[in-house]
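TA notes, week 10

Several of you asked for a full example with nothing omitted. So below is the full record: structure tokens for the whole chain, then the designed sequence directly under it. When grading your own attempts, check the secondary structure regions first.
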């Protein structure tokens, strides 16, 4: 079975690591122990307590190494599963939690968000990559659920900004001034997967999203 082969390989690796660090593995130690027993003075037998104690320590080292190897294998399998899941989303329309947006030259951007309850005033602030607020947009009153505002790509002075990636934040209040929970959304078609980091990142144009941020998936457009 595959499990038996993996277990055997892991044990062999553990013994090789033990021999590298201590000069012998468990098998070498047992051979030495048996040889000394065979050649001991029968009138003055050696005390095997120390040998047994050392053998127990070597066994613990081997077990610890096997445990670490098994955990690493599990992590690798999890990483492979995440990569496969990310690749299957290429060409699909996704909705994800996030506050990124891409401004393309000559095209307005739609900023998506979600409200937990109705709000009488929604405000969207757009910031550049340095963290500076470049545009404040009023979304007016909105009911609970998904909402959006359109940004024409200009700052508060009417100057057209450069194409690129920006971020946004959403604040919402009721007529009495109470805060309404609001969350930014990113929607779009997945056109690639970036696997250069520790975990795969979905690409939607210039935007990068974690797989765990995706909240819904629909068929390709």
């Amino acid at each position: 079975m595959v499990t038996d082969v993996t277990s055997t390989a892991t044990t062999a690796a553990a013994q090789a690591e033990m021999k590298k660090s201590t000069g012998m593995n468990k098998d070498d130690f047992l051979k030495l122990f048996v040889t000394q027993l065979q050649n001991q003075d029968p009138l003055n037998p050696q005390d095997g307590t120390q040998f047994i104690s050392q053998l127990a320590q070597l066994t613990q080292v081997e077990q610890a190494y096997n445990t670490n190897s098994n955990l690493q294998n599990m992590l690798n399998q999890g990483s492979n599963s995440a990569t496969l899941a990310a690749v299957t989303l290429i060409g699909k329309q996704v909705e994800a939690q996030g506050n990124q947006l891409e401004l393309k030259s000559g095209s307005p951007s739609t900023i998506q968000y979600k409200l937990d309850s109705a709000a009488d005033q929604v405000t969207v602030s757009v910031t550049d990559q340095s963290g500076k607020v470049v545009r404040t947009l009023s979304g007016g009153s909105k009911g609970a659920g998904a909402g959006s505002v359109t940004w024409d790509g200009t700052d508060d002075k009417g100057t057209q900004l450069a194409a690129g990636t920006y971020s946004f934040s959403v604040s919402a209040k009721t007529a009495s001034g109470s805060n309404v929970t609001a969350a930014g959304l990113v929607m779009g078609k997945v056109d690639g997967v970036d696997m250069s980091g520790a975990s795969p990142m979905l690409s939607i144009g210039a935007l990068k999203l974690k797989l765990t941020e995706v909240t819904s998936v629909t068929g390709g457009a």
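The domain at 92-218 is CATH 2.60.40.4070 (Immunoglobulin-like). Use that as a sanity check on your answer.
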